[in-house]
Amino acid sequence: MTETADPANHADRFTERQKGKLPDFLGLQWSEVRKGLVRGRFTVDERHMAPNGFLHAASVIALVDSACGYGCATSLPEGANGFTTVELKSNHLGTARDGTVTCEARLIHGGRTTQVWDAEAVHAETGKTIALFRCTQMVLYPKA
């Protein structure tokens, strides 16, 4: 997945920034990273599995949480210099043993001090929802 010529799409920039970090290790790929919206995926393989042979919940959370974080970084209000997660919740509704897990994350609330993001992880081949995710980010500003 590569960034289009659209200058508002920062997918390539975030793919580069994640090199050597957990999202890179898990093979997370981004097709769209822009203000208020992020789309990504990973192809299921052994590194994503739990010992019981099913998709590890942490693999799914890594995808949706990274999507929300990248979206938050792209959607910061003027003057902000960062963010930190203050709450997250994930409801797991299904699994995958192969194929591709996709996600779409959307900004639900973009305030001066907080952002709330919702994301959905879907098994691309079956169309079934694997997880629903919501997180709240606290927006950070430089100290005076």
Description:
This protein has about 140 residues and is of the alpha+beta class. The chain has a single domain (about 10-140), classed as Hotdog Thioesterase (Thiol Ester Dehydrase, Chain A), CATH 3.10.129.10. The chain is built from 3 helices and 6 strands; from the N terminus they run ααββαββββ. A hairpin with a 5-residue loop joins strand 5 (about 115-125) and strand 6 (about 130-140). It is globular, with a radius of gyration of 15 Å.
Q: Topology of this structure?
A:
Elements: H1 11-17, H2 22-25, E1 29-34, E2 37-43, H3 57-74, E3 82-92, E4 100-110, E5 114-123, E6 129-140
Helices and strands, in order, run as HHEEHEEEE
Strand order of the largest sheet: 1-2-4-5-6-3
Q: Which term fits the overall shape?
A: globular
- CATH topology call: Thiol Ester Dehydrase, Chain A
Q: Number of helix segments? A: 3
Q: Would you identify the regions where 5 or more consecutive residues have pLDDT less than 50? A: none
* Major beta sheet summary: 6 strands, antiparallel
- Tally of distinct domains: 1
CATH superfamily: Hotdog Thioesterase
Distance between the termini: 40 Å
Mean pLDDT: 95
CATH class equals Alpha Beta
Please count the beta strands (DSSP E, at least 2 residues each): 6
